[in-house]
């Protein structure tokens, strides 16, 4: 027995992802302006990451639109994993941005020069960072609430951009205060290292989703609680298995009932369980296998008292 649940407000992730594209372009334009004003390699590194942000935001939008498509003959469990692919692409893009920054900073390290119009450049860059910081918070919070890996990845990517900008401002401030221009490329190198680590983590987490990672322990505990509270009339449950695919959660288990129980009664128990579990785990799709007592069970059994 199976079922699915269509998330209400399904257009919201798409709208957020679409809005990210022009915002990313705006931030990129501001940061390129700051770099042109100063000639700072640190500000150039910040702008390079923003170029990646634009590409990543487009990839996230495409993935979210595709993931929202209903199940079809060739994709009978839906298209949810498309968001993980987008998140992997973003992780790779972050790594590429870090390598580009390493390249630019390494060249400047041996020929450091004090940036021009540094105060104006920093002011412009701070404006871009404020825009990024607010939008990163919105995307991460909404993405986690809506269980959208692509939105979360996009938000985390933008947040690393904010960290980059903060590091750049600090580095240029130190260079200005001490008169040592070498702080400009040194801070760029440190920022690149941070970005590289963020990209690595995002790739690892996204690949976990592609590999059918199980639901969290907290979610599985909620499932067991729902079963214990709504499986009256059965003898227990075993072989509980879960996996996460973007906003969807797939859950299956075996429900043990008396051999003498009518099919209709067993069906009613399944309906109660399905409703309770979907309430605990929004977006869940269930497969419940009903079996008579006496069949050898495998895995952890949830007994009903």
From TrEMBL:
Topology within the bilayer: Multi-pass membrane protein
Keywords: Cell membrane, Membrane, Transmembrane, Transmembrane helix, Transport
UniProt GO MF annotations: cadmium ion transmembrane transporter activity; ferrous iron transmembrane transporter activity; zinc efflux antiporter activity
Biological-process GO terms, alphabetical: intracellular zinc ion homeostasis
Single GO cellular component term: plasma membrane
Residue ranges occupied by any Cation efflux protein cytoplasmic domain in the UniProt entry: 216-293
Pfam families, per the entry: Cation_efflux (PF01545), ZT_dimer (PF16916)
InterPro entries named among the record's database cross-references: Cation_efflux, Cation_efflux_CTD, Cation_efflux_CTD_sf, Cation_efflux_TM, Cation_efflux_TMD_sf, CDF_Transporter
Residues spanning the membrane: 16-35, 47-68, 118-140, 161-180, 186-204
Domain of life: Bacteria
Domain Cation efflux protein transmembrane positions: 23-211
Location of this chain's protein in the cell: Cell membrane
Similarity comment: Belongs to the cation diffusion facilitator (CDF) transporter (TC 2.A.4) family.
Listed name of the protein: Protein p34
């Amino acid at each position: 027995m199976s079922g699915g649940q269509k998330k209400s407000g399904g257009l919201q992730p798409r709208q957020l992802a679409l809005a990210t594209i022009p915002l990313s372009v705006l931030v990129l334009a501001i940061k390129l302006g700051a770099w042109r004003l100063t000639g700072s390699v640190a500000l150039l590194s910040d702008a390079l990451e923003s170029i990646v942000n634009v590409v990543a935001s487009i990839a996230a939008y495409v993935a979210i639109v595709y993931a929202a498509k209903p199940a079809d003959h060739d994709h009978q469990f839906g298209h949810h994993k498309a968001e993980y692919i987008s998140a992997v692409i973003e992780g790779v893009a972050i790594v590429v941005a870090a390598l580009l920054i390493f390249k630019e900073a390494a060249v400047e390290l041996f020929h450091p020069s004090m940036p021009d119009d540094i105060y104006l450049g920093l002011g412009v860059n701070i404006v871009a960072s404020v825009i990024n910081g607010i939008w990163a918070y919105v995307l991460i919070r909404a993405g986690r609430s809506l269980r959208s890996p692509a939105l979360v990845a996009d938000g985390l990517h933008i947040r690393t951009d904010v960290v980059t900008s903060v590091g750049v401002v600090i580095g240029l401030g130190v260079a200005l205060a001490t008169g040592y221009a070498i702080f400009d490329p040194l801070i760029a190198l440190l920022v690149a290292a941070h970005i590289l680590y963020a990209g690595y983590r995002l790739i690892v987490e996204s690949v976990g989703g592609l590999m059918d990672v199980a639901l969290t322990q907290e979610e599985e505990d909620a499932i067991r609680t729902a079963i214990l509270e709504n499986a009256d009339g059965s003898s227990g449950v075993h072989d509980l298995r879960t996996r996460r695919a973007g906003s969807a959660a797939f859950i299956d288990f075996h429900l043990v009932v008396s051999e003498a129980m009518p099919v209709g009664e067993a069906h009613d128990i399944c309906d109660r369980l399905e409703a309770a579990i979907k309430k605990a785990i929004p977006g869940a799709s269930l497969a419940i296998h009903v079996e008579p007592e006496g069949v050898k069970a495998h895995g952890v059994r949830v007994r009903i008292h």
